[in-house]
Design goal:
Methylamine Dehydrogenase, Chain H, 8-stranded antiparallel β-sheet, 5-stranded antiparallel β-sheet, 16 helices, nucleus
Amino acid sequence: MFFVLFLMLLGFLLRGWSFLYVRGTRRRRKERLWLTVDWDWRLCVEGGWRARMEGKNCFRTKWSQSPVYSGGNIASLWLPAPRGTSSSSSKEALVMACGDTVNVLWASTGDLIASYKLPLEDVILRVDAVSILHPEKLAVESTNCAAKNNKRRMVGKKKEGAERKANKEEVNETSLDHSLHASAPPGSYIAVGTRTLQVYVLRLDCIHEEEDVKMSSSLVDPSVDNSGGFSCVLTPLRSWTAAQQAIAVVQFTFSGRHLVSGSTDGGVKIWDVFNHHLTHNLRIPSASLVHSVYVDPAEKYICVGSFEGHVAVFDFVDKTLISHGHFHVSAVESLCLTPNNEHLFSIGRDRKLAICTVDSSTLREVRSFVVKEHVSSALFESPFRIHVGAMDGTLSTYSVSVTEPLRLSRRMRGPSVAADGPPDDEWAIRSLLVVQNPKGVHEAGPLYGLLDDGNSSSLYAADAAFNISHLLPDMEGSGYYASSTLVGFLDQVLDLKPFPPGFPFQRMVVTNSKDVRCYSTSGCISSQTLRGHKDIVLTCAVSADAGIISTAGKDCEIRFWSTANWKTIAIGQGGHEADITSIVFNAKQSESYMVLFSVGVDENLRLWDVGMHVLPTLPHDEKGVKMSIIASPIIFSHRSGINAAHEGPIHAMAVAPNDQYLATAGKDKNVNLWNINGKKIFRDASLKGHRRAVSCLSFSPSDRVLASASNDGSVRLWSLISLTCVKTLQMDRTPVLQVAFFNKGTQLVTGNAEGVLRVWAIAESEVVWSGETHEDRIWALSLVEQENENVLLLSGSADGVLVATEDYTSEEAERVRSERHEVILKEQELANAMRRGRYTEAFLLALKLNHPRNLRQVIMKWSVKDAEDCETSLCRSILPSLGEEQLLRLLQFTREWVSNARHCSVASLVMHCVLASHHFTELASMPAVRTILEALLAYMQRHSQRLHEVLRRTYYVDYVTRSLGPLTLTSEPPFIRDVATVDDGLALKRQRAETV
């Protein structure tokens, strides 16, 4: 008791560190207690559970967000419904390429369900996909697709015109022939064209959980879909060299039986995918790069557009050139034929939409229109509707007709046009795709493509920034809006902040972009984008109640966003003249006191009064939710600040949990400590000790300690009372870029420039866990406290990968505790079975517990007591009932026993029983049995030679016994002799001597 009081007094005097007190006696297990002084000057006595957990931390990757899309076109698949569900529950999946990997993701959540990496180092240039369903399901799926699209569309007005009446009369004449669908095996197929002139055809299989399917991990990457109850796997069907020049186009026909490939030399080849042979070898007259291809659903004609603006039409059946023409001066982006195959629509990058006839050897232009957009991509949803993507991100939908003028149906202005800023190449739309309209499904309807109902479909738009937006038609206007965005490539993750529990979103991620994205799930889908900065965003901050978000970057502005309407409500200007590198809110926030601190490359430290300028714009409504009532954001300046806070750029900043201290650090190697007095900042001290620039700072949540990470590879812990370095943690000289406290301040997590996360136990100054979670610099690191007292580490790096590492120490401790309890019970059962003579039960328990010594004792006692029963039971009942894993374990034990001469008899008995109960072919098929049998054979031969040598030596005993005379040999001991017998023997000897 007196010792505890002494420690309390010592803690009050030193204030700033943790003390470890060990209590207990020799008879009682010692317990470790942590005595800490928190930020409110209170002595905290914590139980020994936390100390015991140190050194036994367990971490695992919960999920990761990796690059899945690196440009190019995208495709869609229609996956069949799992077993036990209706066909209407089928889901759409998106197919895209990233480098040399094909990725398939759920369109709704962005979760990766399957991926395939090319066997050779290569780059994928084009992808396409087709879903071939069973004939009885084809019509049902087509109806379901149409119903889902109609739910998202507006009810259009009735159209009148001579052309539409003529199209209605020609429905029966142009109905699709479904014989081609029957000739192709049902399934989902993906085709890719690579830079090395190779074409790969992959099959996507959906495997139910109850099926026992063996998959090669080197070729596939399966992922289980929790909602569907099945896993998807990509397997290569076949591959071949498709051309002698680079492949520019790879496209399935509507039936899925043929694959069209176009090359840069003007050659167009059509392949029978499933019979694996070339069916067409065509060449356009201009001999220029093939840029676009169109095959009508009936597979009667094939239209080819070149990069130089030429258009050619071939007869698909006769394999001959019908007509050609030159209507564009730039690349032809999209082609389409009318249902009666009389007119051809083409649109190019020269903004020209041409309509021509196909009734002669030369295409004759009938009409032409000029669109307003600088075309970067185009898609004919039907012969009457075209979607055009522009270089500035603008998306327009036009209604096309042979007899009527071009009519604009919908238009979504691009980000640069909406912000009245200069055009940005990142916003250029590279690929368009209609939602719920995968190839191979909708063609079953005979009315598809013949009638224009005037309704607009939802679209997927892939831009040059590797983002795929899901665009829905605006019911109240004549445009589109992005409901969600699939982020295909994060670029460099510069900062990330988690939202508090209970908030609809999980995290906010800042990448090397002008936009900040918020994610609600672990997938790649971002349902909210903060757009407004004029340059790259470098840092972000979230208020305690997640009502306000702050972002800053290279445009020297601090923007404040309301999470009620996700709009900018205030802008802080005039505080910095260079890049803003870090911003942070104060810890104890209230309506009367809420400030934001910012530092930048200009060496300045600024304090922004958020409570005065920003909070008044967020009044509470009747439900207590903050809502923004202003139409335009207010602009204000900083409240106070420090000029030239450091002698160089400032990179890191942190606020103490009690809002008393503010720490800053940068390139000058110093850590400056500032005292916060209300809304003013005063210099307190400068902590020196690092040999290189300081990259990150973090205050302990429980102790009055500051941690600083530096490029010199060390992490220093500073006492805020003595203002000295009390501990240095260093593993190597690799720069440490991130640091954070967790587990109530007893542990540290660091991230370095090589992508390695390390967890340190502060008391022992040692690493308790280390993981290579990234391949490049870790720029961002955040902690999320979970409900089960575990921690989730969110780390982002320069390689564009975001990883969530979960601390499951408590779960692992509970598992180990339960396993140990179960082992103790089993060991007691084993002892009872051996004592009572139940050797069969004891044999199985010892084998299950993985106790070779107990198992050997069981066999020895059993063979000594009843050798015949032991051998019979092993051969007939015990060994045949063992599984493959248990049998391999028994053979491994036997290998250990046979290496010792004292236990070789037990090993020989076990091997005899194993060979008697299992055929040798069954043993040879087991994995890793070769090495076991080699060792057994070597030692068995050695013991056999030793036994043969012992047997040979016994022959000397027989020789000696038979060589001696019969009188000398007696069954009685030599020291017990009869006197009469001795006298008779002596007399006999004398008689023999006299005779001689």
